[in-house]
Every structure is written in structure tokens, then in C-alpha cells.
């Protein structure tokens, strides 16, 4: 088979390259004459201008077709996600560790809660209306100002002992900390099917996942299930906060909250706790999504 | 070689410790066998399989992918050490990349091995046997068991099993053509006739054939030490260099790898300076490499080549080396043998001369009648001589075969005459039986005639008929009359002149001329019982009546002139290289068109102008007939000059060694040279040529070993079909590569925009692999089935330095135009999916850090809804799927536009290549399966996509088609314009 000897020395290659970049004989710059470069650049300029135009046109017509009040599809939002405050994430999810005697370890947590609740001061909620009914707050028309819909007021005082008003430390130094559970907003989502959904917190009773709880169980400590105080009463999300009509319709809407206060946390043990939201239409058994319909976290209080 | 040819028998016996009567003892033979090894040629050293395999693993893009895999594992290691949440993604990615390399490597290796196996099975032959005297007994032994000193017996038809010093012969002739190219059988005797062992008559060489007679000899060389063995090892010394297509693919790999690495490094720097973490930057780098490398392409190329190889095998070109498929297409010079390749390799009567007139005979392969005028009584007389004065006979039992295919016992000329007579007269054997032969003198070189005396088949005519044929001048000498229109007329000087003219004319056509004469012996002098004695010649052998001349030639194959003119229009120079006489060579060259009707050689011009050859302006002559003797004395410059200045060249009387010189000369002109050959000593030339073509029927094993291609029917025309296929595959590979490269941009842009605009990742690395190795594979192979756009045989062969497989236009058009369109189409789909699910385009910009943050599970979209990390990830996978689907849809358009490079799709026909549709359906089918079938397997990152998203990119697919039609229209409309130069690839 053939010999095609294209072996060149390095200097030859360099020379060839230099000649390619600028060939003084043919006056070619990188294989083209300068005027040719101008033409080709103009062509590409025009080409890309047209392509950008087409792209812009496509996006423009896309924006014309989408509804600005609610998205066309909610394929991924069948069931709301649940989040916890304070939210300190470690390598394996939420991890809240602190030492009651060392206030540096919990001050950050308290601040997080306090900051979070600033959106729920009466001042922040002044645009919202007081709602009393315990049914869905369905609005088919735009009753609010500027073509908006009304939102129900949720103020932090509804969280009573965990509102930060009576106890600015949210019970952290006492070893009976408050946590706030928030359910994600989903437009036109009707949770609970007429019954207000409620928060329910328990130990994660999985032998492998929660060694501490298992140990407690072994020690015959089953008589001590997790004692929780829920605020508002029963840990429910009142139905009048639902459905949510979207940012454009309800600009001042704020999520209802449930605060949980753990009363009997064993010290110096890492506990795994899960807070689920119980209600029709809310699922918490998605194996892929640890935050759908529930929130799991590890809690360890040292002294 | 030793001086064995000079030694006497007893000296030889002593030297080799053997005995002529008893041979070696088995024990002694075994000893020597153990010492010398078996009597067979060592096959050319093959690359070990494992090396071939490993080469496939590191060749081409594999290195890049290995780098990607290693980076993946490194980042996995780092993440693992940092205790990150899901480090296994990178481990898997690395494994997948490694698997891709290994699988494509195995695939390429398998393809290569398969085509090699075809050859291996082809060259496998029945083991040869040899008749040996050992332990004073005659034994049949496998030829590879022979050892030096063995006494072997050979007879006509045998292949000589080793180099043999002959000690007893009887009418032995050998055909040394596999060694010297000389096809004339040479006689062999026990006499020392020449100092040079190659020339002396008492040595017969390994792998030559004994044509007739018997002989006994002592084995003096075995295996690789034989003359043939030495030539063969010489041939394997000529190195295997890269094929043109290998160079093209390497060029292409460099180009793509260059783009991949420079974009990768550029964006690595950009992402580092944009304060991305080094680890993230490395992951981007992997993505960019994976997006840039067309993982499936090399496998596709291999498949395309092997498809063509299969197609060529059907047309009698067996390709040994896949890449040779394309080499044949870029061939610019074919150096062809004459005998057997251009000609039918059998003597055939071409012309007759009687009644002062030349008649032409039909010389085609399958003649059933002869059209010339057979009404003259002279012809009747001539046909009788032709029939009777002939010792050749058909082998019995072939009555049902066409005459031209029947096997004949007899020499070439007699065979030609026998078949000629059989065609015209029918049943020659019967005619001979009716004209009983009473005496015969066979042809010999001293009297140069053949004579026989017959009774006539006319019961009333008791005369004997004496018929004679032979060298025309000798026959004429013996004649005093000549037959004109059936009447005997005195042979005067005018008639003798006419004979001379005819003889010269026929001879000038390179034909072998025979004269025929007869004489009816007077009944009174030669009665029924007359005792004819051929030794004393008691009958007249002069004053005969001259009847006519017949001339014979080995005629060209009927398909060859067409093939040669095809070569001509395809810009391929055909050079004839033959061992034959220049006149014959020139005549054949003229009749097949290698020398065209109008062109002249220097000698022709000299003759026409009546001036000495030296005075002719050599530039005026387009044709040249070069004698091997002249070639011997030529300098390289002179040879170059001849190759350069003459477009039509015939090398006559050349030795196979000179073939190598000619090939090298052509290669110095920058030509891609194809060489045909059959003999063992053609193998260096076959190796040296860009593509060596061995003859399947006439070729020796060594030639087949050295060649890249085997011509199963030995027909020159098959080479031309091969060239056509080779050119087609080059064009189609261009299309395949253009098709494949296009989507690389659509795969690359997501990474670049992801890094710069910080949007959620539009497409995943795994998804890219599914395009490159899934949906795209069958369509790109389908392009190999595309028909040629125009007559590719009207084009000059490609200039291997300028016409690259992947040229600038191809890369730029695919990358910067169609690729960009595809990217835009895919991004529109991406933004549509996100917008309709809640994330409007404006929200997406700059969102990356929070989007990918595991700690944010209430991520707000454009409508105020809140998303957990997994919900976002799932949406991101939906985006991947949408992007993937868009690329697939647009690749359908890309596939359709790549069917042609110049013609409109409507000219080419959308449905002519059915395989393209298989490609399109497979592409969409695979995409459907991935999306809806495997949409629930999380690891693959596909989701069941809403059906309408399949159509978002359709307008862009149509745009691609329309744009490309416009491009082609302008190319056709304005050839040579700026547009043509920049847009035609």
C-alpha cells in the first residue's frame, strides 16, 4: 500500500503555518484575500443577524402564546414541596445541630427564623385581607386593585409560642426549639379536598436510617413518642389561603405557615425527624424527591 | 544460490548425503526437516491481534474520550473525598465514556477482522502433494515435508514443490511466468547451460509449473530459501504506508480534535475566570469534549467502507484492506498487465488472407458464427487445411459447452485454429475422421512447418491431399502456384508482392501469422497403397499451391475498450506494462484505446514525415511505446520525462522488476497508482503501488498476499467499476461526515450558553451520547447508499493534496451555518418547554447557581410557584429530552439535505435511496423509544415529553432544507462564483 510521505519537520510546519497566516506572494491572509475576508465576514454577519432575528421572533411569539397569570402546564408540580426553617444544609440534607449552653450555636438559627418572619409582620401583611371562612377562597374575578386578586392575611402572631414575639429565642436555649414548616405554592392547587391539610412530625422509624431512634426504641423508650406542639392549632393550613392564583394575580400573597415545637428532644443524640403534610392531593411517597409533601431533617441538641 | 547446477550427479549425491535411487532415509529427512523447518513460505509477518485491537482503542477520537473518562473519574474522586451528595454521576459518566471507546474499538476491530478473513479464506489452498523417493520407496508426501536432498519426481501439470536440480528429464517444459513474467514455456534438461543459476536449464524453481514432460531432481532449496521465497521476503520489506483515506480521516480527526480541545480549553479558562469552581470547570470540559467528538463516526465510516467493499466483491473486486476501497477511487494512473487483464488470454484467429484480400474474423468472447464471406472456393480449400493440418483436439465430454469455453489439448495457435474451424464448419473431429490421416510431420523449429497427408472424403477422388502450415515465408518458398478464387495460378512476382504486403500488414497488427498450402498428390504416382514415410519424405514438399494466411492474436476482452474510455473521461491514465513484443503490445493498446486512434508515437511521426527518429519533436507525440531494453538504460529523469510528456504509454518487453521502477516513476509525479499483477515477482510492485491489484484466476499466492485487492475475474473492466465505487464512497463519506458534524454544534452550544448565561443545563452528556451513538448511526450509514449526483466518471481523480475529505467549506458550512440553525431550533424548543412549565426565558438567565443548589427546595418560578430541587431536575431532564428531540427532528432535515451536495433534492429524488428512509424511521423510532419507553429510567435522564414539543423545531427543520436548496441553487446557477467557492463542500 501506498506511501504518502507527509512527514515534515517542526520548523517546516511552523514555516507552513506562517505562510498560511500571511502569504506575501499571493497576499492571502489565512488562505483568503483581505477583500474575501470582508465578504465572508459580511455574509456571516448578515446570517447571524437573520438567525438572531428568527430566534427573537420565536421567543416573542412564544411570549405571546403563554398565559401571564398561570403556566400552561404544571407537569412537575402535582404535589407541593415542603421546606423547613431554619434551613441549614449539611452534606446529607437538613442538619440542625446546636448546643443549648453555647448561644453562638443557635443564634444564627434564631436569626434565620426572625428574618423569615419579617414577611409576616402586620406591616408586611397590610395589603392582605382578613379571612375567617374555613373554606377555599375561590375568586373568579379580579377583586383587588390593579386587576389583582385578594390574598388572605397570615401574620406571625398566629404562630403563638413560636411567633418570636413571646419568646424571641424560639425555645432554642430551652432545648424545645420551634421550627417553621412551609408548603410550596402551586397555582390553583386545592390541598386537602375540603379538609385543611395538617402537619404531622414523627421520628423516622427506619432502623438503618435512624440509629438513635432505634436505640431509644430498644431501651424501651417507645413510651416517649415525639411530643410536638403545633401552631396554629392542630398544625393546619387554613383552606382560605388556597388556591394560589399566581404572582401576577396575587402579588402580596404569602404562604401560610405551621410552626412545630419539639418538647421532648433527647439531648446529645442525633435524631431524624420527618414532618409530613397530611391531606388529600399531597403525596409524600416519591422515592426520588425527599421534599415532596414532607421534610426530613436531623436534629441534635447538645448540652 | 549455490553452484549446484555445475555439479555432477555424484557430486550432488555426496553434497546432500542422498542417493538418486534410494533417496533419503526417513530418519535423515526428519533430522533435516527439524533443522530447516517446513518447506513453505513464511507468511508475511502479521501484526499481533492484540496490537491491532489496542490500536483501535487508542486511535482517532479515543484518546479524547479517554481523557474525558479520566477527568470524570478524577472529579468523582474529588467529590467523593469532599463527601458530596451524588458523586456517582461522574463515575458513571466515566464508565460510559470508557465503554463507548471500548465498544467502538471492538466494533472497528471486528469489521477489520471480518474483511481480513475473507482474504484468508480466499488464499487458503489445498495442500500440495509431492512424489518423493525415500527409503528407496516412492511416496506421496505433503510438499511442506520436503527437505534438501530429497529426490522428487514431477510430471506435466505439477507445481514444482521446491527448488530442484534436475537429474533426469524427458521433454520437460516449465512455465516460469510466476517468476519472470515470461509466459512462454521453457524447456528443461539435465545439462548445465549457463553460469547464472537463474538462467541455467537444469534447475526448476519452486512454485513454477511443469507444463509437459517428466523430470526427476534433487531438492536443493526449501521454503524461504528458495528463489521465490527470497523475492517474497523482499516484497514484505516494502513498508505498509497509510492509505489516502486513512490520511483523510486522520486529517479530519485532527480538525475535530483541534476544535474540541481549543473550545474546551477556551471555555475552561472562561469558566475559571467567571469564578466557577475548578471541579465544575472540569465537568464542563468533559461535556464540551463529548459534545465535540462524533463518537459514532469512525464506526460509521468503517461500516460504509465495508458496505462498499461488499458491493465491490459482487462486481468481482475483492478488497483486502477496507481503506483500499477509497484508494481505488482516487487512482490517477492504472498500470495494467496486458495478458489476461486487457486481453482474453487465448489466441484467436483475427484475420484471414485469401483471394488477395484480407478478411477480419470475429474475436469476441462468445462467437458462434463468423461473418466474413465464405463463398469463395479458396476458403473451402483453406478451411480444409486448417481443419486437417492440426493436432489439437477437444477434450471429450464437452459437447454441451459453448465452443469458446471448451478445453483443448494442444498449443495456443492450434487451439485457436481448431476453435475457429469448429465455429465455422462444425464438428471438426468428424471431418478429420472422414479425411483419414495417413502421414504427419509435426511442427519443429528447424523446418518451421507442419505437414500431414490425408485421404479425401470424396469417394470418387482417390488422390491424397497434402496439407501444410507454418511460417508464411517458409511456406511460400515451397509454393509455385497460388489459389485465387479456387483456381491455381502461377505464383509470379506480382502475386508474391501481394503476399508480402498482406503478411507485413497482418504482422504489423501484432498478430501471429501462419501460411497454409496444399497439394493433391497425383493418383497415378501415389496410389492407395503408397507407403508414405515421414523420415525419408518420399513425397513432394515443394511446388505446392499456396492457399492463404491466417493471423492470430490474443484479442482484447470486449468490455475493455469501454472501460478504458471510461478511465480516460475519468482522467485516469492507463499505462500498459507487458512482457510482450512492442508491436503486439501497441496493436492491443490501439485496439482497446490505450493508444487512441489519432495519436502517434515518435516512431509513427518519423515514418510519416520520413525523417530519422532523432529529429522528431518528442513533445508532438502523445503516445509512446517504451521497450524494456530502452528502459534499462534510462535515467530516472528520462523516465519522468516520458511519464510526464506522453499521455498514452505502453511499456513492452518489460520485466516485472521494471514494473517497480515504473510505479515509482508514476508516484514521483504525485499520482495515486494502481498496479495489476499476477506473478510472484510482481509483488514488490504491488506492494509499492498505492493499490496493488492481484489477479484472482491467474495470480500467484504471493501476488495476492502483496495486493490490496483481488480481481476475481481478472478483467480490467472490473477495476473501473471499482474506481467508480471508490469515488462514490468518497463523496458519500463527505456527506456522512457533514451530517455528523452538524449536530455537534447543536450539542456544543448548550454548554457554552450554560456557562456564559448561567441557564439550567439544556442537554446532558449522556443524552449527547444517545444522539451520537443512537439516533444518528443508521442515518449516517444510510448516506453510504446514496447514488452519485452526476457522472462521477466524468471527473478528474481527486488531487490528494487539495481535495480533502473534510475541507474548510464542509466544516464551516456544517458548524457555522446548519449547526447554528439547529442550535437555534433546539433552544427555541428548550425555552418553550421551560416557559410553558412556568419558567419564562427572562427568569432563566443567570439562574444556574440557585437552580442547582440542593439546599433550595422552594425555588420560585415566573408565576410565583415554588419548586423543590427534584422537581427542577425533572424539568431539566424534560429540557434535555426536548433538546434531544429537536436535534433529532432537525437531523432528519439535515439527512435529507446531505443527500446531495450540488443537485436539488428533487433532482436526486427523495425516494430513490430507500435506506435513507430506513434511517429516518429508525432515528425517530429510537427517539420515541428513548422518550416514552425509557422515560421512566431516571439514570438515562429522559422523560416522557409532551407530544407537541416534537414539532417546535419543525419550522427550523424546514428552514434548513429551504436554505440548503437555495445554497445548491446558487451553486448550480453561478459556478465558479464567490458563492460556489465558499458554499460548495
TrEMBL record, chain A:
Topological relation to the membrane, as annotated: Single-pass type II membrane protein
PANTHER family tied to this protein: POTASSIUM-TRANSPORTING ATPASE SUBUNIT BETA, SODIUM/POTASSIUM-DEPENDENT ATPASE BETA SUBUNIT
A cellular-component GO term for this protein: apical plasma membrane
UniProt keyword annotation of Repeat present: no
Domain of life: Eukaryota
Pfam families, per the entry: Na_K-ATPase
Designated name of the protein: Sodium/potassium-transporting ATPase subunit beta
One example GO MF annotation: ATPase activator activity
From TrEMBL, chain B:
Cation-transporting P-type ATPase N-terminal domain sequence ranges: 3-77
Domain of life: Eukaryota
Annotated GO CC locations: plasma membrane
Principal location class: membrane
InterPro entries hit by this protein: ATPase_P-typ_cation-transptr_C, ATPase_P-typ_cation-transptr_N, ATPase_P-typ_cyto_dom_N, ATPase_P-typ_P_site, ATPase_P-typ_TM_dom_sf, ATPase_P-typ_transduc_dom_A_sf, ATPase_P-type_domA, Cation_transp_ATPase_P-type
Membrane topology type: Multi-pass membrane protein
Keyword Nucleotidyltransferase in record: no
One Gene Ontology biological process: intracellular sodium ion homeostasis
Secretion signal, residue range per the UniProt entry: none
Transmembrane feature ranges: 58-79, 91-110, 252-276, 282-305, 737-757, 763-785, 810-833, 877-896, 916-935, 947-963
Keyword entries, A-Z: ATP-binding, Hydrogen ion transport, Ion transport, Magnesium, Membrane, Metal-binding, Nucleotide-binding, Phosphoprotein, Potassium, Potassium transport, Translocase, Transmembrane, Transmembrane helix, Transport
Subcellular location, record wording: Cell membrane; Membrane
GO molecular function, one term: ATP hydrolysis activity
Protein family according to the UniProt entry: Belongs to the cation transport ATPase (P-type) (TC 3.A.3) family. Type IIC subfamily.
Name of the protein in its database record: Sodium/potassium-transporting ATPase subunit alpha
Provenance organism: Fulmarus glacialis
Amino acid at each position: 500500500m501506498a506511501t504518502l510521505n507527509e512527514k515534515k519537520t517542526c520548523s517546516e510546519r511552523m514555516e507552513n503555518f506562517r505562510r498560511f497566516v500571511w502569504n506575501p506572494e499571493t497576499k492571502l491572509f489565512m488562505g483568503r484575500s483581505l477583500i474575501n475576508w470582508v465578504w465572508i465576514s459580511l455574509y456571516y454577519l448578515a446570517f447571524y443577524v437573520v438567525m438572531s432575528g428568527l430566534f427573537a421572533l420565536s421567543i416573542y411569539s412564544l411570549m405571546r402564546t403563554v398565559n401571564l397569570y398561570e403556566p400552561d402546564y404544571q407537569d412537575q408540580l402535582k404535589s407541593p414541596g415542603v421546606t423547613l426553617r431554619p434551613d441549614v444544609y449539611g452534606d446529607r440534607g437538613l442538619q440542625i445541630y446546636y448546643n443549648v449552653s453555647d448561644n453562638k450555636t443557635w443564634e444564627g438559627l434564631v436569626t434565620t427564623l426572625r428574618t423569615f418572619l419579617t414577611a409576616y409582620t402586620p406591616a408586611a401583611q397590610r395589603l392582605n385581607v382578613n379571612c375567617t371562612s374555613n373554606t377555599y377562597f375561590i375568586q373568579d374575578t379580579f377583586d383587588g386593585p390593579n386587576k389583582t386578586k385578594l390574598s388572605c392575611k397570615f401574620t406571625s402572631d398566629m404562630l403563638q409560642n413560636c411567633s418570636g414575639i413571646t419568646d424571641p429565642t424560639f425555645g432554642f436555649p430551652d432545648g424545645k426549639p420551634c421550627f417553621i414548616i412551609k408548603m410550596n405554592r402551586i397555582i390553583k392547587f386545592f390541598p386537602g379536598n375540603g379538609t385543611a391539610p395538617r402537619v404531622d412530625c414523627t421520628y423516622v422509624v427506619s432502623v438503618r436510617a435512624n440509629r438513635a431512634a432505634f436505640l431509644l426504641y430498644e431501651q424501651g423508650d417507645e413510651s416517649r413518642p415525639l411530643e410536638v406542639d403545633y401552631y396554629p392549632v392542630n398544625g393546619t393550613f387554613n383552606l382560605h389561603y388556597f388556591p394560589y392564583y399566581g404572582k401576577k394575580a396575587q402579588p402580596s400573597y404569602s404562604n401560610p405557615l405551621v410552626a412545630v415545637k419539639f418538647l421532648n428532644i433527647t439531648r446529645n443524640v442525633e435524631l431524624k425527624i420527618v414532618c409530613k403534610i397530611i391531606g388529600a392531593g399531597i403525596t409524600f411517597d416519591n422515592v426520588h424527591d425527599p421534599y415532596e409533601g414532607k421534610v426530613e431533617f436531623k436534629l441534635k441538641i447538645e448540652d | 544460490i549455490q553452484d549446484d547446477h555445475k555439479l555432477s550427479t555424484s557430486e550432488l549425491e555426496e553434497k546432500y548425503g542422498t542417493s538418486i535411487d534410494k533417496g533419503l532415509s526417513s530418519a535423515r529427512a526428519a533430522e533435516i526437516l527439524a533443522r530447516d523447518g517446513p518447506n513453505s513460505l513464511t507468511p508475511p509477518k502479521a501484526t499481533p491481534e492484540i496490537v491491532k485491537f489496542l490500536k483501535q482503542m487508542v486511535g482517532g477520537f479515543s484518546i479524547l474520550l479517554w481523557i474525558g473518562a479520566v477527568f470524570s473519574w478524577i472529579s468523582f474522586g474529588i467529590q467523593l473525598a469532599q463527601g458530596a451528595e451524588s458523586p456517582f454521576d461522574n463515575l458513571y459518566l466515566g464508565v460510559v465514556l470508557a465503554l463507548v471507546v471500548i465498544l467502538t474499538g471492538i466494533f472497528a476491530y471486528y469489521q477489520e477482522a471480518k474483511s481480513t478473513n475473507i482474504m484468508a479464506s480466499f488464499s487458503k489452498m489445498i495442500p500440495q502433494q509431492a512424489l518423493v523417493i525415500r527409503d528407496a520407496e516412492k511416496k506421496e508426501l505433503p510438499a511442506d515435508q520436503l527437505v534438501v536432498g530429497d529426490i522428487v519426481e514431477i510430471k506435466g501439470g505439477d507445481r514444482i514443490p521446491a527448488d530442484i536440480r534436475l537429474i533426469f528429464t524427458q521433454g520437460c517444459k516449465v512455465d516460469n511466468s510466476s517468476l519472470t513474467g515470461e509466459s512462454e514455456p521453457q524447456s528443461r534438461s539435465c545439462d548445465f547451460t549457463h553460469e547464472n543459476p537463474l538462467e541455467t536449464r537444469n534447475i526448476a524453481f519452486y512454485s513454477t509449473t511443469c507444463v509437459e514432460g517428466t523430470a526427476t531432481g534433487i531438492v536443493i532449496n526449501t521454503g524461504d530459501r528458495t528463489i521465490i521465497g527470497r523475492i517474497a521476503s523482499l516484497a514484505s520489506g516494502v513498508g505498509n504506508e497509510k492509505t489516502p483515506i486513512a490520511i483523510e480521516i486522520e486529517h479530519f480527526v485532527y480538525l475535530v480534535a483541534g476544535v474540541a480541545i481549543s473550545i474546551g480549553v477556551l471555555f475552561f479558562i472562561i469558566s475559571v475566570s467567571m469564578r466557577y469552581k475548578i471541579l465544575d470547570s472540569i465537568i464542563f470540559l468533559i461535556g464540551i469534549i463529548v459534545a465535540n467528538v462524533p463518537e459514532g463516526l469512525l464506526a460509521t465510516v468503517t461500516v460504509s467502507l465495508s458496505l462498499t467493499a461488499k458491493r465491490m466483491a459482487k462486481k468481482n473486486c475483492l478488497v483486502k484492506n477496507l481503506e483500499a476501497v477509497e484508494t481505488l477511487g482516487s487512482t490517477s494512473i492504472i498500470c495494467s498487465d496486458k495478458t489476461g487483464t486487457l486481453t482474453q488470454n487465448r489466441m484467436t484467429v483475427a484475420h484471414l488472407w485469401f483471394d488477395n484480400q484480407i478478411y477480419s474474423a470475429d474475436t469476441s468472447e462468445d462467437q458462434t458464427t463468423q461473418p466474413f464471406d465464405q463463398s469463395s472456393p479458396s476458403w473451402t480449400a483453406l478451411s480444409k487445411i486448417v481443419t486437417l493440418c492440426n493436432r489439437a483436439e477437444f477434450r471429450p465430454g464437452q459437447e454441451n459447452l459453448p465452443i469458446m469455453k471448451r478445453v483443448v489439448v494442444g498449443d495456443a495457435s492450434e487451439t485457436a485454429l481448431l476453435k475457429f474451424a469448429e465455429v465455422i464448419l462444425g464438428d471438426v473431429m468428424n471431418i478429420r475422421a472422414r479425411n483419414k490421416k495417413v502421414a504427419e510431420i509435426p511442427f519443429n523449429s528447424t523446418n518451421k512447418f507442419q505437414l500431414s497427408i490425408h485421404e479425401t472424403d470424396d469417394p470418387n477422388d482417390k488422390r491424397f491431399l497434402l496439407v501444410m502450415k507454418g511460417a508464411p515465408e517458409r511456406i511460400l518458398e515451397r509454393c509455385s502456384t497460388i489459389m485465387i478464387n479456387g483456381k491455381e495460378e502461377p505464383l509470379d512476382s506480382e502475386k508474391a508482392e501481394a503476399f508480402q504486403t498482406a503478411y507485413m500488414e497482418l504482422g504489423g497488427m501484432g498478430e501471429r501469422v501462419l501460411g497454409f498450402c496444399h497439394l493433391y498428390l497425383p493418383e497415378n504416382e501415389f496410389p492407395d497403397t503408397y507407403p508414405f514415410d515421414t523420415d525419408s519424405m518420399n513425397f513432394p514438399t515443394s511446388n505446392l499451391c499456396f492457399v492463404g494466411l491466417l493471423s492470430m492474436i490474443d484479442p482484447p476482452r470486449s468490455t475493455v475498450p469501454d472501460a478504458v474510455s471510461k478511465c480516460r473521461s475519468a482522467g485516469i491514465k492507463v499505462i500498459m506494462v507487458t512482457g510482450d513484443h512492442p508491436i503486439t503490445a501497441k496493436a492491443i493498446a490501439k485496439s482497446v484505446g490505450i493508444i487512441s486512434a489519432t495519436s502517434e508515437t515518435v516512431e509513427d511521426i518519423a515514418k510519416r514525415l520520413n525523417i530519422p527518429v532523432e529529429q522528431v519533436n518528442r513533445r508532438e507525440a502523445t503516445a509512446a511505446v517504451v521497450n524494456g531494453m530502452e528502459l534499462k538504460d534510462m535515467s530516472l529523469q528520462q523516465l519522468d520525462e516520458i511519464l510526464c510528456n506522453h499521455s498514452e504509454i505502453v511499456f513492452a518487453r518489460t520485466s516485472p522488476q521494471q514494473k517497480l521502477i515504473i510505479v515509482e516513476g508514476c508516484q514521483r509525479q504525485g499520482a495515486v497508482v494502481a498496479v495489476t499483477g499476477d506473478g510472484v515477482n510482481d509483488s514488490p510492485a504491488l506492494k509499492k503501488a498505492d493499490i496493488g491489484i492481484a489477479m484472482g484466476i491467474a495470480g500467484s499466492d504471493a501476488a495476492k498476499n502483496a495486493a490490496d485487492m483481488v480481481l476475481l475475474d481478472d478483467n480490467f473492466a472490473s477495476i473501473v467499476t471499482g474506481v467508480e465505487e471508490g469515488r462514490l464512497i468518497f463523496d458519500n463519506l463527505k456527506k456522512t461526515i457533514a451530517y455528523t458534524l452538524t449536530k455537534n454544534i447543536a450539542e456544543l452550544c448548550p454548554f457554552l450558553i450554560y456557562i456564559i448565561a448561567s441557564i439550567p443545563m439544556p442537554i446532558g452528556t449522556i443524552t449527547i451520547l444517545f444522539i451520537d451513538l443512537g439516533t444518528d448511526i443508521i442515518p449516517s450509514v444510510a448516506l453510504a447508499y446514496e447514488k452519485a449526483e452526476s457522472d462521477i466518471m466524468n471527473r478528474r481523480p481527486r488531487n490528494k493534496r487539495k481535495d480533502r475529505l473534510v475541507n474548510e467549506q464542509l466544516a464551516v458550512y456544517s458548524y457555522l451555518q446548519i449547526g447554528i440553525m439547529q442550535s437555534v431550533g433546539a433552544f427555541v424548543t428548550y425555552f418553550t418547554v421551560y416557559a410553558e412549565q412556568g419558567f419564562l426565558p427572562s427568569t432563566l438567565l443567570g439562574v444556574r447557581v440557585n437552580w442547582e443548589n440542593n439546599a433550595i427546595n422552594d425555588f420560585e418560578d415566573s408565576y410565583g410557584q415554588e419548586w423543590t430541587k427534584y422537581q427542577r431536575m425533572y424539568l431539566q431532564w424534560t429540557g434535555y429530552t426536548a433538546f434531544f428531540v429537536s436535534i433529532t427532528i432537525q437531523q432528519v432535515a439535515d439527512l435529507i439535505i446531505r443527500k446531495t451536495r450540488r443537485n436539488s433534492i428533487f433532482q436526486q429524488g427523495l425516494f430513490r435511496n430507500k435506506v435513507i428512509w430506513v434511517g429516518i424511521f429508525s432515528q425517530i423510532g429510537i427517539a420515541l423509544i428513548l422518550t416514552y419507553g425509557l422515560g421512566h429510567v431516571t439514570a438515562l435522564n429522559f422523560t416522557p415529553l409532551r407530544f407537541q414539543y416534537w414539532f417546535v423545531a419543525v419550522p427550523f427543520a424546514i428552514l434548513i432544507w429551504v436554505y440548503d436548496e437555495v445554497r445548491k441553487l446558487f451553486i448550480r446557477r453561478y459556478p465558479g462564483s464567490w458563492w460556489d467557492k465558499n458554499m460548495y463542500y
